[in-house]
């Protein structure tokens, strides 16, 4: 499944910190499996896991999109051929999700979120004139533990 969101990511060394903060924020927003009736010990199904992970991925990417907007606004300005340009890290508009059963009771599912990390270079005063100067595929792996997706 794909989504249409772009998002900023900080410098590579900060990735784990952002990931943890976002994962904790997403978990606290209740992006978990559907609530079951009291006393229902039926384990979640793969279909439940896929739906919950898609909601988790949309939220994750939306948070990154907000960060990208802040980063773009604060991007350093360079002079290239007498033009003011900015450069910042971001994400592609598309992402994919995949969920697999693990067979382990403590973490019955694993979810993979795939997207591309891009470096954008833009004219500072013309947001429509941006180019992707490099792109790297990224796979984020999450596990389902204790009723929610964890980074």
Structure description:
Helix content is 28%, strand content 40%. It is an alpha+beta fold and 151 residues long. It has a domain at 12-32 and 43-76 and 93-115 and 137-150. A 5-stranded antiparallel sheet has the order 1-2-3-4-5. Helix 1 (15-28) crosses helix 2. The longest helix is centred in the middle third of the chain and has 28 residues, at 46-73. The relative contact order is 0.21. The model is unreliable at 1-31 (pLDDT under 50).
Quickly list its features.
single chain, 151 residues, alpha+beta, five-stranded antiparallel sheet, 2 helices, 28% helix, elongated, disordered N terminus
**Overall geometry:** elongated
| Poorly predicted runs of 5 or more residues | 1-31
DSSP helix count? 2
> What is the SS-derived class?
alpha+beta
Can you count the beta strands? 5
Mean pLDDT: 78
Largest sheet: 5 strands, antiparallel
Measured as a percent range, the helix fraction is 25-40%
Instruction: Classify the oligomer.
Output: single chain
